[in-house]
UniProtKB/TrEMBL annotation:
Classification via SUPFAM superfamilies: Homeodomain-like (SSF46689), Tetracyclin repressor-like, C-terminal domain (SSF48498)
GO-annotated molecular function: DNA-binding transcription factor activity; transcription cis-regulatory region binding
Protein species of origin: Amycolatopsis thermoflava
Pfam families to which the protein is assigned, alphabetical: TetR_C_11, TetR_N
UniProt key word Flavoprotein: no
Annotation: DNA-binding region: 41-60
Name recorded for this polypeptide: TetR family transcriptional regulator
Domain HTH tetR-type: 18-78
InterPro entries xref list: Homeodomain-like_sf, HTH-type_TetR-like_transc_reg, HTH_TetR, Tet_transcr_reg_TetR-rel_C_sf, TetR_C
Entry keywords, A to Z: DNA-binding, Transcription, Transcription regulation
Record carries keyword Metal-binding: no
Length: 209
């Protein structure tokens, strides 16, 4: 859910094997941005990473294996959503991270999402990555409940999807120009569905143009 998803923030323990993995996965993401899925191959990754082709093939086997490992490595980071002190603030902060990771056509996140449509293995790994990210984000709703902002039952996953989905729809699916205010408004709209009333704790109406 952030640009550490899935390009940065990889957990990289010490040792030669970990360094090799880091070099290879960095090569995968940079090649995707530069050349797209069609430019990704074992040979291209070996050349860019400086890791012998036989090593790349032995460990990852094919492009699908490389992409799946990018998502797997990203899922091992320690990212958590920001705690701003309010449900609206937390959702806005989350959406701002999503927006920054998607706004540029050359973003690694967009390139990886596009690649997942070309590889079943990558698609499966991406689904697991999103499940993990949304599970981590459920703490946003838990915090709001502890603060007394949410009185009734709220489906955390549905709320988080409602907040973030408009960004993915506009920037990735529709390819429309990015607008920073969209990230904030989508977060506010989603928060309204969970807060007791419009104008409730943490809610601030968007100024009328």
């Amino acid at each position: 859910m952030s640009d550490s998803a899935p390009a940065t923030g990889l957990r990289r323990p010490g040792g030669r094997t970990a360094r090799t993995r880091a070099l290879v996965l960095d090569a995968v993401t940079s090649l995707l941005v530069d050349a797209g899925y069609d430019g990704l191959s074992i040979d291209a990754v070996a050349e860019r990473s400086g890791v012998h082709r036989a090593t790349v093939y032995r460990r990852w086997r094919d492009v699908g294996g490389l992409l799946a490992d990018v998502f797997d490595a990203a899922a091992g980071d320690e990212w958590v959503p920001a705690d701003t002190g309010s449900l609206v603030g937390d959702l806005i902060a989350l959406n701002q991270e999503v927006f920054e990771s998607l706004r540029d056509e050359s973003s690694v996140t967009r390139a990886l999402i596009a690649a997942s449509f070309r590889s079943a293995q990558a698609a499966a790994a991406l689904r697991e990555f999103w499940r993990d990210r949304y599970r981590r984000c459920e703490v946003v709703v838990s915090r709001a409940r502890r603060r007394g902002e949410i009185a009734g039952e709220v489906d955390a996953h549905r709320l988080l999807v409602a907040a973030t989905a408009p960004l993915y729809h506009r920037l990735v699916l529709m390819g429309e120009p990015p607008q920073a205010e969209m990230a904030e408004q989508a977060a506010r709209d989603a928060a309204c569905s969970a807060l007791p009333v419009v104008g409730g704790p943490g809610y601030q109406a968007r100024p009328t143009e």
